[in-house]
Fold:
Amino acid sequence: MQWNNVLATRSSRMKASEIRELLKLLDQPDIISFAGGIPDPALFPAEAFRDAFSQALTGDKAGAALQYSVSEGYKPLREWIAAEMAKIGVPCGAENILITSGSQQALDYLGKLMISPNDTVLVGWPTYLGALGAFNAYEPTYDRLDPATNRPAADFAAKAEAAGGRVKFAYLSVDFANPTGETVARSAREAVIDLADEMDIAIVEDAAYQSLRYDGEAIPPILALEIARKGSIEDCRTLYCGSFSKSLAPGLRVGWVCAAQDVIGRLVLMKQAADLHSATTNQIVTHTVAAAQFDAHVAKLRSVYMARRDHLLAALAREMPEGVSWTHPEGGMFVWLTLPAGMDGAELLAQSLKTERVAFVPGRAFFADGSNGNTLRLSFSCADEAAIDEGMKRLGRLIRSLQ
Ligand code: PMP
Structure:
C-alpha cells in the first residue's frame, strides 16, 4: 500500500520529530533526564483516586459512572471549575465550561473550529510544541506574537493576507510557559487584548501550569482582564484552556475550556463529533478528589517543585560557563537555556547522550520557523537534588569543552 497516495494534505504537516528518536534512549537506567516535562508520579494523589473510583463504581452509582454522558461534561465538575474560575477573576457559570480530554484536545478543537488552510495563528517564539502540533493539522501559517514589541495590527493583517488567509487567533501560554518557564506580564496581557480587539480575532489562553506558582505575585488571566474591561464573559473573545494534568494527574485526561456560551456551544458540537464526551468515570473521580483536596494537594506540589527549581537554578549558576544564560521561572516545571551563538541544542543532546548521559529537549522544535537552534529546555519536575547536581556538572563540562 502506497499510503502517500491516499493521504490528505494536512497529514504532510504531521511529522514525527527527530528528537523523539533520541529521546527513546531515555529508558536506559544510567541516563540523568531533564527531558520529560511530566509531573512527578510519586506526587499523584493515588489513594484519594483509588477511594473515589471505588465510591463511583459501588452500588447504584456504578451505572451512571460507566454510562455515556453529556458532551458538555459532568455538571458537578463544571460547577466546581466555574467556582474556581471566579476565584481568579473570571465570574462564570457551568454553562461557560466544556470538559475536554486534557487541554490538548481543547487545542485541537480550537484549531478545527477556527483555522482554514493558510490562515494565520499568532504564537510566541518559542511556543508549546504540542500547540503547534495540534494547529498544524489545520494547515495554518504562523506569525510571531511578542506583545512587548507592539507590532501594529495592520502589519499582522498584511502578512496574513499575503499568506492567503487572515489572522484567526493569538495563542499564548501565559504562566510559566512550556518551554521557557516565563510568565506573560500584565501589561503584555492587556496589550494582547488591545490587539485582538483591534483585529477582531480570538485569544487562546493556555493556562496549563496556572496553579503551580512558587513565588512572585499572581497575575490575573487574560480572560479576567478582559471581563474587567467588558463586564461579562459573554462579551469576551478569550478562550481559557485549563487542565488537571499538572495539578492532579494527567493520566485521567481531564481539562476544560472556559469562554462565552456562544463559542462553548460550537465547541460542544466538535466534542460530539469527535468523541461524544470525555470519560464519565474520570470526570466523576476528578470532581471528588478536587472538591476534597485540590488546594491542599497543590500546596504540597508547590513546595516540592519549588525546592527542585531552586536547586536547579543554584546548580546552573555554579556549573554553567560564561556565555550560557537561562530563565528564572516563578513556577511551572521548566528552565530554558540559551547556549553560546553557533552551538546547537540537538547536536549537544546527541553528544551528551553519548558521553555524559544527560538528556534534555533541544529548543529548535519549539520555534514555528525552526530557528534558534542554540537553545534547550530543562525540566526539574522529576529530578532529585543529587541528579540535578550531577547532571548540571556534566552538562556544564560538556558545553565548556565545546566552546
Ligand atoms: N499546554 C501546555 C503548555 C502543556 O505543556 C501541555 C502538556 N504538556 C498541555 C497544554 C496539554 O496538557 P493536557 O492535555 O495534559 O492538559
Summary: The first strand starts at residue 32 and ends at 33. The mean pLDDT is 95. The pocket of 4'-deoxy-4'-aminopyridoxal-5'-phosphate is lined by residues 37, 102-104, 128, 130, 173, 178, 206, 208, 243, 245, 250, 255 (CB under 6 Å). Residues 129 and 366 are 5 Å apart (CA to CA).
